[in-house]
Amino acid sequence: MSEKDNQKVYFGDKKVSKDIKKDGVEEIFTKVSDNYDLMNDMMSVGMHRLWKRSFIDTANIQKNHVCLDLAAGTGDIAKLIAQKVSKKSIYLCDQNKEMIEKAKERSLNEGFFNKCHFEVSSAEKLPFKDEQFDHVFISFGFRNFSDKSQSLLEIKRVLKKAGVLHILEFSKVENKTFSKIYDFYSYNFIPLMGQAISGDKKSYDYLVKSIRTHENQEDMLKLFNKAGFKDNNYENMFNGIVSLHRGRKCP
After folding, report:
1. For 44-84, what is each residue's pLDDT tens digit?
2. pTM attached to this predicted model
3. Less crowded by CB within 10 Å, the N or C end of the chain?
């Protein structure tokens, strides 16, 4: 095993092996899958819907584009992409089987199943051919990857030349006063909401801690640069609670 494989990564606020993080994330998202959409609404007071709409509306998706929704969760991003493309050209991929089953159910109930393919896989080893996608989208899933650098290399591999990676993720709040209010809300209320709605305080405690130990905006740029993406940039939303990161595969 290489030194790189032995490196510790954050799982919540603790450093663990990459394999332990992968298994821990798998367990957490299996637990929260039934209440995942409701909790997203509760935690963000519905704001996540506006952030995700902007995420897709500003991506310059063309009707003939092929898109990968990675860490797809319950398929809300894929539903937005489906309004932009004309063919069966959306691939939903998540390492958690329960989440993909929820996404399939949603796509059938909400009328976009005929534009979708579904895969269960980790981001570190994607089951897709080289240069398959015009866009790769990750919405609030990147911080949970066990090996972010390897994931970025895999994403670059499956992107077409000049294809774009889009990541919407929690980030570092810009205003110090607002940051204190946000921390108080996150640490004191979100785990309690998880307990009240799903009986699972521990999983939501992890989700809060995973946000605080995730790379900030500038560190995300460094990851993109190291992986060989070009034209890398980010845009802060809602005072930096969320950032939209983009990078292009060099032609």
Report:
1. 778 889 999 999 999 999 999 999 999 999 999 999 999 99
2. 0.91
3. N
The residues of the chain scoring below 70 in pLDDT are 1-6, 39
Identify whether 213 is part of a domain: yes
Give me the CATH number covering residue 63: 3.40.50.150
- If you write DSSP's letter for every residue of the chain in order, what string do you get? --HHHH--EEETTEEE-HHHHHHHHHHHHHHHGGGHHHHHHHHHTTHHHHHHHHHHHTS---TT--EEEET-TTSHHHHHHHTT-SSS-EEEEES-HHHHHHHHHHHHHHT-GGGEEEEE--TTS-SS-TT-EEEEEEES-GGG-S-HHHHHHHHHHHEEEEEEEEEEEE---S-HHHHHHHHHHHHHHHHHHHHHHHS-HHHHHHHHHHHHHS--HHHHHHHHHHHTEEEEEEEEEGGGTEEEEEEEE--
Number of domains in the chain: 1
Asked if residue 188 is part of any domain, the answer here is no
pLDDT value of residue 185? 81
Residue 37 lies in a domain: yes
